Amino acid sequence: MVKSRSLHLLFTGWCHCRYSLSVFNVGIGLDLSVGVEGVLPSLARPANASRIFHGIVFDAGSTGTRIHVYTFIQKDPELPLLEKETFQSVKPGLSAYADTPETAGETVRQLLRVAKKAVPHVEWERTPVVLRATAGLRLLPPKKAQALLDEVEVAFEESPFFVPDNSVHIMNGTDEGILAWVTVNFLTGQLQAKTKKTVGTLDLGGASTQITFLPKFKTIESAPPDHIARFDLLSTTYELYTHSCTDTHQTDSSLERKVFESSCLSRKFREDWSFGGLTYKISGIPDGSTGFTECYKEMLKVVKGVIHQPPELQDSNTFYAFSYYFDIAVEAGLIDERRGGMVKVQDYSIRAKEVCNKLSMYLATKPFLCMDITYITCLLKDGFGFKDETILKLTQKVNNVETSWALGAIFDYFQNIKIH
Ligand SMILES: Nc1nc2c(ncn2[C@@H]2O[C@H](COP(=O)(O)OP(=O)(O)O)[C@@H](O)[C@H]2O)c(=O)[nH]1
Ligand SMILES: [Ca+2]
User: Fold this and answer.
1) 171 Cα to the center of ligand 1, angstroms
2) What is the pTM of this model?
3) Which of 30, 64, 204, 316 has the maximal Cβ count within 10 Å?
4) Does position 280 have pLDDT exceeding 70, yes or no?
5) If you measure from the C-alpha of residue 205 to the centroid of ligand 2, how many angstroms do you get, rounded to a whole number?
6) Could you tell me the CA-to-CA distances from 44 to 82, 276, 405 in Å, in that order?
7) Exposed, middle or buried: residue 226 (CB in 10 Å: 0-12, 13-18, 19+)?
8) What is the ipTM of this complex?
């Protein structure tokens, strides 16, 4: 089976983008202490809160479904802490069951068992459970996506947990970006500190990507007004720049071809790949040129000119990057899987050159690494406009909590942060 993030991209093409820009006001100081993992605002407490309460978030991603069970502890009347997260994931994502939606229900039931173990029996009926689906379901025909969501809802209703209104839905890319930013800035203590110092976030999923950061005034001024998303959290109004792209299916008839050749693949590489109901023959270009320069040109075609480049990114170095940025850096040997680490944008490009210029060495074990790492290099440099020297913090977890929009989503549930 073909496993490549960028291959999917090349078939679907960039991109349905939405840029958003928001303004940040330091509002009322956050009277919160930072626990080991962070704190929730007092408003986040459900009525009749006991010392400990929980929230369950399902992330129905394009490549997998994940459950996050959060345990919050009420340390004193005002300051609940995020005590721990229980996390589990399964592959493939729900969109793989578009023609057998009942299997989606089974996936969810299976993961709900994790929640039953993590949440004490007496807490079940007041513990909310929500599911947010991302690019995989956004790309399905609406009827097929709805059939999957209906099955999820049935599984939720059968469960002993509390199913709020609108518990199961497809989330838009802007919410995905904002909620991931909320998660990372909460886990790193930035939201609790009474300063404007925050970190930006970069998420690269199986079929979409988000960049979110607190912009400088110049960026705010120069961006079109409709690129603004605003939300309220902890008595503060935030306005962030957030830009989300979901790969979209092209109707271009050239994509109906069943052969896909790429200079990012070894000349000897051949594999069948099923996507969108068709089976494609994926291969290197038998008598064509391969290597980094050619591969980069291919990636430029889908990245260049499509993504807005805020000038301030050129001297920025406070971005956390996760999901495929992390996975590909691990695969490329740039970071250790358990510890994560810092990389410069140029580290991706140096490694991309090494891998792409020795494709035969990677043919058996990592045939798509050249394509994936070149894609990331191109997205960062020619897509967003980052400089070679920009440092990214690659993180899968902060204080043992997944860097995912899921924590931001449970904040949104408890606090109603009203992203608009
Ligand atoms: N460890 C971990 N990895 C994640 C999480 N969410 C996404 N990922 C990674 O991100 C990759 C693709 O993201 P996915 O959510 O499936 O695609 P999307 O629907 O386009 O956002 C996956 O293969 C995972 O490696 C998470 O909560 N925890
Ligand atoms: Ca995701």
Assistant:
1) 15
2) 0.89
3) 204
4) yes
5) 5
6) 11, 42, 17
7) exposed
8) 0.98
